[in-house]
Amino acid sequence: MLNYADEIQKIFRIRKVKWHSLHNLGTMTGYGTYTIKSSRESNDEVERAPKRIKRVLKQGQGVLDEVDLKKLDIDRERVCSITLSPLNVYACLKCGKFLQGRKENSVAFQHSIQEDHHAFMNLHTGKAYILPENYQLGDNPLLERIRLFIAPSYTPQQISELPVQCFDIFNNAYWTGLVRLNDNNNSSHITVALQLIARIPPIRDFLLLTASDKFEDELLNRLSLLIKRIWSSHLLKCHLSPHEILHHLSLTNSSLLTPKNTPEPKDIFLWIINRLFGAAPAMKKLLSKEMRGELFSLTQEVPRHDNQQEDTKSLENSHTTRRKIKFWTLTLDLPPMPLFKDGFDTNSIPQVRLEDLLTKFNGVEKAQTKQGTIALSLSKLPRLLILHINRFNRAVECPIKNRNQTIVKLPSILKVKGSKFKLIAIISHKGVRGTYSDETELDQESQWSIIVYEKSLEEWFEVNDKSITIKEKELLFLEESCIQVWEAME
Ligand SMILES: [Zn+2]
Question: C-alpha distances in angstroms, 439 versus 186, 245, 266, 443?
Fold first, then answer.
């Protein structure tokens, strides 16, 4: 492939000029410096340049001038805006439209003639062309920059240096990994789950290093691309639209999006983790090692004769069974809330220690279930211990309004079975007045946000669809946490 920038360098000699002052050689504002003589001299050079180079320059001239990064919206579904086909789609780099094909009479070809727009980039391959001539452009910094907008890529070295502070094309500062996902459709329960996946180092690193078309599961390709963009230092805008992956989720598992079911972020998170688990052997190994724990359940059964559990092993007598259970998350139950006649304020909300909730898994505490009396004991703890605080009872009327708002007091270091853990992320809930609720039906809808600890900055950040704010560590326990991620200390 012809290296456009190198060819230009060969032709012109030496005086430092910013890219944006290059006359007729493409707009590369703020992107490196190159050296040429004055524009008049440079035109003379073009005239004297070898025939092949002259052709490249003439065809490149003006075409890259027309590129308008602010018109590019790569968060959209990557389908042709005319045919709606996802195949062979190009972005017009002047107006931002997604159009199919580049051969004669294709949509993009006709667009180039009708609209007089000429620079196009294939959204899948990243190759750039001048249309209607169907001439492939060589590498140059502007095109490379656009390729990174469309599909960021990473090396292990770059990952080890994350996060970094950067600026989008509107000059807004942002930290990679701390990027808002727009919520246009009451989908915060999904976007926080996606954000959580982006914050779990082994999954994040695997997805950053895997090409976004390598999975057979299209959902994972889209997830991989979204995570790459959340951590990208080459964002057009410092917030992203998760539209592409939400659209795919709606096709794959529409129940996750149905507001009536009010699925929690935990449901989305587990659904995606299970998809990842089955996607690639390397991912399976990684998830098993980092996130999968084991516990035993000892069940003193109510006498019955239709035991269908296959992996059970009788101990003591025929009515006691011991099962090994693998888990991604441990669900913790809150003590029942007292009834308040006139509402309650923060001071009257009951509080409970996290360690007390974990006694559910000490092998001594017993719970009554339909099957009998069950005692649970942890046998293997994962490096990333994910706790789910069970606040919602879907069986009651108005489950959001009637949720359990008990405050869970957080230790600075959590000790479980001799291991020590530090908190790295929380998914937090807020009940807000529902869109259709009247005066007596407050707290009908959920708003979710993720609160994460950024080690290198030594700060906690709350990220939701509207803002990113620094949080006081000492006040985190006041959050209505529904998921907590604890990382084992070395
Ligand atoms: Zn166009």
Answer: 21, 36, 30, 10
Question: Quick one: average pLDDT of 333-357?
Answer: 77
Closest CA to 245 of 212, 199, 282: 212
Check: CB of residue 352 under 8 Å from CB of residue 408: yes
Alpha carbon separation from 148 to 61, 126, 144 (Å, rounded): 23, 9, 6
- For residues 421, 191, 249, 442, the Cα torsion angle rounded to the nearest 10 degrees is 110
Beta bridge partners of 128: 121
Ligand 1 center–CA 78 separation, angstroms: 15
Over residues 162-179, the mean pLDDT reads 92
At the fourth CATH level, which superfamily is domain 154-270?
Answer: Cysteine proteinases (3.90.70.10)
Q: Which CATH number fits domain 328-488: 3.90.70.10, 3.40.50.1370, 3.60.21.10, 3.60.150.10?
A: 3.90.70.10
Q: Which helix (H) or strand (E) holds 317?
A: none
pLDDT at 461: 95
**CA 8–ligand 1 middle distance (angstroms):** 26
Better-predicted residue by pLDDT, 5 or 474: 474
What local confidence, expressed as pLDDT, does residue 487 receive? 95
Distance 310 CA to ligand 1 centre (A): 61
Name the residue among 403, 454, 399 with its Cα closest to residue 428.
403
- Can you say whether residue 400 is alpha, beta or left, with left for phi > 0 and alpha for psi between -120 and 50 degrees? alpha
String of DSSP letters for 104-118: TTSHHHHHHHHH---
The residue ranges of every structural domain in the chain are 4-63, 69-148, 154-270, 328-488
Task: Report pLDDT for 154.
Answer: 93
What is the pTM (predicted TM-score) of this model? 0.79
Distance CA 389, CA 206 (A): 28
Separation of 120 CA from ligand 1 center, angstroms?
Answer: 8
Interval between CA 401 and ligand 1 midpoint (Å):
49
Cα 447-451-453 angle, rounded to 5 deg? 175
